[in-house]
Each structure stands twice: as C-alpha cells, then as structure tokens.
C-alpha cells in the first residue's frame, strides 16, 4: 500500500493515511466477525416461525449493501437495482432448470453477467452525462424494460415464471433443504457477511477512496488525473454483482421467480429503503436499515392482527398494516436525515 | 440543490431569463413543435401507404392515441411543475390522482352532486392537501444534494394514500356515471365524449398554468425559485412557502385530471398507479418544467402506445415507449422543449 | 438442530374441545384487496357456520379457527405468510387468488406436507409440478377455454343461431394465452373459426378502442374476451361505442362480466354481455342462503371468488370428518378421496379430485348481464333467466 505514484498531486487525494486505513479496516473486520458470530446463533433463540422474516431481512441486507456501494459510495443514485437482482434470480433459475447447473455456480455466473449488464447501463448513462434524478430515471427505465422483456421472452417462460423443482432430499450442491432448515438462514448470513467484507475492503482501498473523491467532487477528482469512468464502473460492477447474488438466493429460497418478483419497481425500492433508513454511504447503515425494515411490516401486521385491547377496533381493517408501515417510513426518513446509523454516529462524534 | 441537468443549465446561463416553466411557445419551441408535427405526420402518412393496416383501423388508433395522450398530458402537467420547480421525483402522483377521483366519487354519490361540480369542489381540497404535504413533510427533506429522501417520502406517501383509500372505501371497483355519455363519429373513427372533454381539460389546464406562471406574482415567485432558490430567498421570497404553493398547484392539476377521468375509470385504490411511470416519461420527454412539453409529450406517448400496439401486440408498445424515453435521456436530456444546456 | 425443526406442521393434534387452525392466504392489502378481503370473509363465514353446526363431529366437536395471512399481492410475502401459518399450527391452507402467489404458497405447503385447497388461481402450471398436497376446486385456464368453446357452440345450437366466426381478445400473459389457445383448439373441433386473436397489455391499459376495432376488422359473429376486471370493462365499453354488427360479447373466465359491479360500472355497455365462467350455483338453496347471510353480515354481495373460499373450507372440514384426525398427512389423504355431493358452485357433479389434485367436475356455466343483474342463462339446469341470444340488436 504505497502512496499514489502516478498522480503528482497525490497529497490532495482523500487523505486517509495508509496506516490509519489499515487500522480502520481491521477494526471494521473485527466488528463484522463479532456480529457474524452473534447473528449465527440467532435462530436458536427465536421462534421457528421467524425464519421467513430472518431470511427476507438478510436478502434485503445483501441488496442494500449492493445498492449502497453504487449509490452511497459511488454517488450514482440507482432506481433500477431490480434489473441486477432480476438478472441474478433468472440466471439461477434458467441455468438450474434447463441445464441442471448447481445454484452455487449459477450464482457466480449470474453475478458476472449482472456486473456486465450494470457496467453497460452505467457506461451509457455516464457517457451521456446523466446525473441525479436523470440517472435514477434512466436506471428505472432499464429495469422496466427488463420487466417487459421477461414478460415476453419464451426463454424465461414469459409471465408464468420459473419454478425450481423440489428435490426429495437435502442437497448442498443444489442448495435445497427442508423448509425449516437453519441452512436457509446461515447461507445468506454468510453471503451478507461476505458482501460487507467486500464493502470494507473496497471502502479502504485506493479505488474505493478514489470513488468517494469522485462522488464528492468529480471536477476536482478529474483535475487530479483520476480516471473517473474507470473507478465508477468498478464500483457499479461490484454493486451489481452483490445485488445479483441476493437475486440468485431469492430464487433458491422461494423456489419460484416471475417477472414481477424479479424486476418490478418494488424490488428496486426493497434495495433502497433499508440503505436510506440505515444510512447511505456508511458500511453499517444498510445492515441496520435492513434489520429495521425486514421485520417492520411483519411486526406491524402482527400487531394489527392481534391488537392490544385499546386498539381492538382496528382488527381486520385491510390496508391498515401497510398504512402504518408507510407512516413509519416517512417519519424515519424525515426525522433521521442521515439514517439511523448515520444520525447516531454523527451525534456520538459531537 | 442538485436537479440533475437543470443545474448546469442555470449555472451556465446566468444572464438569461429562467428557462424552465414560464414560457408559452417561443419561436424556438414553435420550430421544434412544427418539426415534430412534420415527423409524426410523415410517419402517419407512411403507415397509411405502406403500413399494411386497414385505414379505418389506423384512423381509429390515431384518434384513440390522441385522446389517450390528452389523459396522459392531464396527469403530467402537475408533475412537470413539481419535478421542474421542486426537483422532486413525485412517486405519489398516481396515488394523488386516485385520491382526487375518490373525492369526486364521494361528492357525487354521497352528496349527489353533478360530476363536474364535484370535480370543481375537489380542486381546493387537493390544493390544500398538496400545500400541507409540502409544508409539513417534504420541505423538511429538501435542500440536501441527494434525491433519495424526497423520493422515499413520496413513495411512502403513495403507499399511505392507497391504503387509507382502501380502508375508507374498500377495494371493490366503484364508478361514477358521466352526465354526458356516448361518442361522436369523426371521419369513420369513434370519439368518446368524456375523453374528448378530458382532452379539452388538458388544454385548459395548460393555458391556465401558463397564465398563472406568467401573469401572477405567485407565478413570478415560482419562476424565480425554479431558476435560483438561493437568489430568490435573498431578494425576499419565502422559498418554503413557494415550494408549498407549487406542490399545491401541482396537486390542483391532478384534481382536475381526476375529475375528468373518473367517469371512464373503474375506480379501485390502485387505479392511478399505472400513470405515475408514464407521467415521468412524458415530463422528461417534454422537458422538465415545460408546460407545452408535457402536452406534446403526452400526445406523443399516447400515439406511440396506441399506434404501436397495431404492430407490437400486448406490452410490446410499452417497450417502445421506454426505448424512446432512454433515447431522449441520452441524446436530448433537456427534453424536447427544455432549454439547451 | 434436526430435532428443533422436524416437528413443524405436524405439531397440531386436536382432541375434544380443541380448536383446529386453518390458514387463509389472500391479498388483504394492495391492489387486489377488495377481492382478497371478500374471499377471507367467505372463508370466515364457512368456519363460523361449521362451528355453529357443532364443529367437527369426528373430532368430538372440535372447533375450527381461521387464521388470516395477507399476501399483499406479492408471491414472496404470500410464501412467508404461509410458512408462518404452518409453523403456528395450521393443518391446512386456503388461498390465494393470484397464480404467482399460489405457486409460492403451494411450494411452501408441499414442502411442509400440509394440504392446501386452492380457492381461486387459474394457471394450469400450478398443478403440473407433481405436488401431492395441493388441490384445486375451480377449473384451470385451459379447461375453461375448452369448456368455453363447447358451451358457445351448444348455446348457439340451442338458440338456433349460427356462430361461425369469432374474434378473440385477451389479456397478455399466461392466463389469457392459455384460455385463448385452448378455446381455439376446441372451437375448431366444434366448427367455429377464430378469425382474429388480439392481445392487450396487462398494465398501462386505459382505452380498448383500438384493440377492439382490430379484433372486429375480421368481421366476426361473436367477440370472445378473457381478462381481469378493469380491462374487460374497457373492452365492453369499446364494443358498445363501436356498435358492430355482431351476435354478442362472450367472456370466458372474464374478471368483470359476471361481477355484480359490472352492470352499474359499464352502464349500457353491459347489456346482455355473456360470460362463461365458474360461478356459484344461484339455483342452489344452500348457496342462496349463504349469499344472503354474507351480504347481511359484511354489507356487500358475495361474488363467486368468496363462494370458492367458503367451499374450500368445507372441503377441508369434510376431510377432517373423514380422517377423524387433524394430522396433515391423514387430512391430505382424506381430501384426496373426498366427494362433496352438494357443491356450492355450478359444476358437473360432486367435487372430487383427480390424481393431480384438479377437481374432476369443475366446469363453466354461462351468465348474462340483464337489466342490471347478473343472471345464469345456460345450461338450462342452472338457468335463473332466459338466455337472450343474439345478445345484440342486429
């Protein structure tokens, strides 16, 4: 980790010194390891019926970590991460059902493929200098086109979607277990941990610091000789690959994927909401956001289903659970401008 | 604040008048409009000659497309103001449309009002709603350089509106009968009268909006804020108040749209959702904050979708719409009627 | 770990005075909340009726309990709700209205070996996965297309009208396509030619004039329509406006044409519109009584979908009576062999499931919108009013 040599004005780059960087990253890795160990034992203390919520939370977590790389650290606000999630989900489904390829391999192929698609989309958007809302709308339009394409392509079974056939017994190679198996929780937990590790490595690496410099001041970064396009595309590729893995795992857990499950606008917001609520552009924000958002709608629904006595009149009113969820979402976004983690960190620093 | 392309535009054109909402068609825009008419006209002529479709069907699809375009324009007019002035990607646009349709439904059925009277009463209600949303909630999330917070708030707002409507009115489809029914025949094609009225409404709203922006002090203030909010506040404009008024005016346009569309809509809480996405396409296509742009963009998309469906069945024509949208974003991000940056 | 997880689903064992939980998964919020809520009410009414009549006799009068799950219209949420209900001890599931959600809920039920009775969901593919625990009461898409063609031919014959050419207008996607393809195949066998087939998009569809005109340009005798509620209302309105010289509009598995909201919603355009669909048996006294009580209790008419949810709960209750056990596996076997003699729907015979889990006797009958009411008009044995065909002034 030597200082920049190719840039004569290297001192002006985001000035985390190599030694501090090293320490900072090491501390984050330690946090990650501790968190992983704690979370590993979570299924033993929670009731069995919480497994679907835990898994969904982890999938949100992976998506949000992926989105955060591109939009939080890279400053390219994507409103179309459904495209990359869906590519992962469908790659897995198509390779498995048509060619019997193991989901683990399909996951890697999907990630590479998705990264390629993402780089292509981002290149077009950046090449034509789209930024801000325009960049968001362009990514949104791509995701919508993927949705329409999936609905019309015979290869992916059009609107019918693809079922993953049930296997008679557990199989690690084909990533299928009994419905209640803890493996369904541990696997995405490890995938999420890997995604966070990648984020940490990236954030403290030179490309990561360049990317943040580009986000903060593209003009200055360019004048320093940083190849803007290159570092942005690296960020996009990482982001899309991680999101794609969430998609592949989605297919394996739910055993069914159709156009709506893969590419609808809701998928994109599922990636954005946890990251924004937790804290954009932070390592831990998306995880904290996912931990809040994942169970939130479930908790609200549970309260509405069996309300405390003074709220009994609310029981069975359809739509109430989602309405409450929407209010909570608005309140968090309005009152915690930097997200839960970002706001807390800011308070602590003062 | 960062409003994508518009920022560069206002920062590089400091000496010129604000480019976004205020203009009627000026010469340049007239040229663009004329060019568009020629291109579309030529395409239509080619289709009549070599399109391989019966001419009666083609005529019908053109007329249907224009009328549908009127509906799209109606929904987009409010959005172009909100997006253009506030820079907010308002994902609650469709839900607000549904909301105003339900208010019209309520007034028409519970109070027994005439449909158009009910629509007129909905206008101040929606203005108040828009004003309230902006001044209590959205004003708090504006101003930073990122877009995700306003976007998430409007997404949450959309969920909230839809589900409150569901709680109040239930999810079964309801309908409001129009006092004017039926259709008229124009050169062998059918023109549905309520849709024709909606088309007229779109033109009327466009004219009214242009007049408000050009002739009133509110309009002046809105234009000033759109061009440079910091500058406007320096010369004594209460920017947050203008934001709230702008969102209110945007919601008013939606109220008119809802009033005119309710008679040909099967009303369920999610009825307006499908318009949100297309409205964004239209607003960007026409040029952010451009009123003629929203009109022309609406017509263009309506035509593409309807005529396109003759050749690309099912959702194929929607693919075409998004394809055009991306091309415009890449090649002419300021939109057809936006100022060149 | 295995010990912790293996007991799911089978955990419920009912004895005297116990309650037996049945899980219902429907879209209680989101765009389909109207119909989803109504279906949930239908299932709840069935549970109430069974409990009032003394519960499950074979289990010493054990009472049923309906636990709701809200799919929110999403497959993912539907599946996690199903898993939650199963792990909370539901011995059987009912649901879900949408085909994609049903795919997910069915796979969850199959993996947990808990029987599921599908009330509404039309895709053929759901039952083609080789699942052993899944049963469906309503006819599937292709059998409705086929039965629709047979019925149209028979109806023309009865009315003494020649139906030679039809135009088919259907919603894009698996549902519309499979109904229309099955119809076309059977129609040819019946000597009816499908002269044009036009599909329209499932989203961003707010004016049907062009598509209807396109379908009409082949000069058909009848316009056949398959789709959901709002789009089919648009189609009926466009046909009315274009005022073509046809014998009538004939829906197959249409989400609108036999819905009680349709006549008021479409106004004049609804006049005499025909609809071949699975339908509650308006001629059955039991079904009339249920519908009256439903409307009294919930303040809205009970559509066929809710009747199917009611029926699905009855099928599960019948399974419980026959097996005398709340063990899901025994229940599954009992449902597979059950025979419900007096179905609440206008079917060809008792509800009995074939080896794939489809109801052998599920079929369609023809309704017609007459003077603001939906009447059953064909075949004769289910008729509540006389068939008007040709359905339009020529």
UniProtKB/TrEMBL annotation, chain A:
Transcription found in the keyword field: no
Primary site of residence: membrane
Membrane topology: Multi-pass membrane protein
Keywords: Cell membrane, Membrane, Transmembrane, Transmembrane helix
Transmembrane regions: 29-46, 58-84, 104-126, 133-150, 184-205, 322-341
Localization of this protein: Cell membrane
InterPro entries xref list: ABC_BtuC-like, ABC_transp_permease, LivM-like
Signal peptide positions (record): none
Pfam families: BPD_transp_2
Organism superkingdom: Bacteria
Name of the protein in its database record: Amino acid ABC transporter permease
Organism field: Citricoccus zhacaiensis
